[in-house]
Amino acid sequence: MDDERVWKFEESLWRASEERYHERVDPDCVMALSREPWLFTGNDAVEAVSHTPAWEQVSFSQQDVRRPQEGLIAIAYRVAVTKGDTRFAAACTSVYRRRAHDDWTVVQHTQIALDPQQETA
């Protein structure tokens, strides 16, 4: 997956429906999110993000893509998102694993909440 597709994939998750999360978040995923209980694994990770808003505006900055080995992509970035009057900003990492040709899932995701008033992404 080239860099452009990586960022489209990641953006699609910020705009995702519950069904999309169930398709693209791996059952073996581990997550650290900005809310209790902070750490989520497996189906709990899928459920933790399944009920988040489908954000209307998504903006990335400080984007970095790494490919430590074939079939594994690690990314880091800052994100600023809005839906109506609701705003959220975070520093994030995600790791994707390729299951088959053009079939990628998220196996790790971390969000560190930032002050959305200071985010300029």
User: At the first level of CATH, what is the class?
Assistant: Alpha Beta
**CATH structural architecture:** Roll
Distance between the termini: 24 Å
The CATH topology name reads Nuclear Transport Factor 2, Chain: A
Shape, principal axes of CA atoms: globular
Over the alpha carbons, how many angstroms does the gyration radius reach?
A: 14 Å
Major beta sheet summary: 6 strands, mixed
Write down the domain tally.
Answer: 1
Please, what is the average pLDDT? 91
Question: Short description, anyone?
Answer:
By secondary structure, the chain is of the alpha+beta class. It contains 3 helices and 6 strands; from the N terminus they run H-H-E-E-H-E-E-E-E.
Structure keywords:
52% strand, alpha+beta, Nuclear Transport Factor 2, Chain: A, 6-stranded mixed sheet, 121 residues, single chain
3D architecture notes:
The chain has helices spanning 3-14, 18-24, 42-50; strands at residues 25-32, 39-41, 57-69, 72-83, 86-100, 103-114. The chain has 121 residues and is an alpha+beta fold. It has a six-stranded mixed β-sheet. Strand 5 (86-100) and strand 6 form a beta hairpin. The chain is globular and about 40 Å long. The mean pLDDT is 91. This is DUF4440 domain-containing protein.
